[in-house]
């Protein structure tokens, strides 16, 4: 008896008292509608769902409610300094009407060191595009998005993305990006499962990602 026969023999003996089950052949397979075949409103809904799957906080807002959503994302957080207002990094070009009152605004720029970033309680940013199928946000570091380090060092990233910036899939997203610009692709908060498959967040980026989707879907 070779090794294959020995293994199959053990499997047969282990299944000897398991009754046979007739296969069910007529059950229809329901496949989800591909994102590219959905309405834009459905695409934005899918983006919302997929971003949340990554354990990010997702909030929908329209009009003036967007400012309240951004303020709510910061509410209740304890400053790194232990007291005083939150120190929030705000990149040049971020919509000023969305910057909450009662915080210490740190304006990002080349004079802001990594140590300065590490002392910030969070960062606000806009985005270039969102991908519904993968729940991914892409930054091209244009106005309102800051440098790569700006959204990688602080522990909280509040990202504001317009509903009309959400596309169905990766091909549509890539087609709309400037290939000469740097791109950062974000799928949920920073996380790793390298150590005994235990998920640990915040190892090499923000521990918390809060996404505010602004505007109607279509």
TrEMBL record:
Pfam families: LUD_dom
InterPro entries per record: FTHF_cligase-like_sf, LUD_dom, NagB/RpiA_transferase-like
Organism domain of life: Bacteria
Domain LUD: 117-214
Gene3D superfamilies assigned: NagB/RpiA/CoA transferase-like (3.40.50.10420)
Classification via PANTHER family: LACTATE UTILIZATION PROTEIN C
Name assigned to this protein: LUD domain-containing protein
């Amino acid at each position: 008896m070779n090794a294959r026969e020995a293994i199959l023999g053990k499997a047969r003996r282990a299944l000897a008292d398991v009754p046979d089950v007739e296969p069910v052949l007529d059950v229809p397979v329901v496949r989800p509608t591909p994102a590219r075949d959905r309405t834009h409103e459905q695409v934005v809904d899918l983006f919302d769902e997929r971003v949340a799957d990554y354990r990010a906080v997702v909030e929908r807002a329209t009009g003036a409610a967007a400012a309240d959503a951004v303020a709510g994302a910061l509410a209740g957080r304890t400053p790194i300094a232990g007291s005083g207002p939150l120190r929030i990094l705000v990149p040049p070009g971020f919509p000023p009407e969305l910057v909450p009152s009662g915080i210490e605004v740190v304006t990002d720029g080349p004079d802001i060191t990594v140590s300065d970033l590490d002392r910030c309680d969070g960062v606000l940013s806009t985005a270039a595009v969102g991908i519904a199928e993968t729940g991914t946000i892409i930054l091209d570091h244009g106005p309102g998005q800051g440098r790569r380090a700006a959204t990688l060092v602080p522990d909280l990233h509040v990202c504001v993305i317009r509903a009309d910036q959400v596309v169905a899939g990766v091909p549509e997203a890539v087609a709309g990006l400037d290939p000469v610009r740097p791109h950062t692709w974000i799928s949920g908060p920073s996380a790793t499962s390298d150590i005994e498959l235990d998920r640990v967040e915040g190892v090499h980026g923000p521990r918390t990602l809060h996404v505010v989707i602004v505007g109607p879907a279509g």
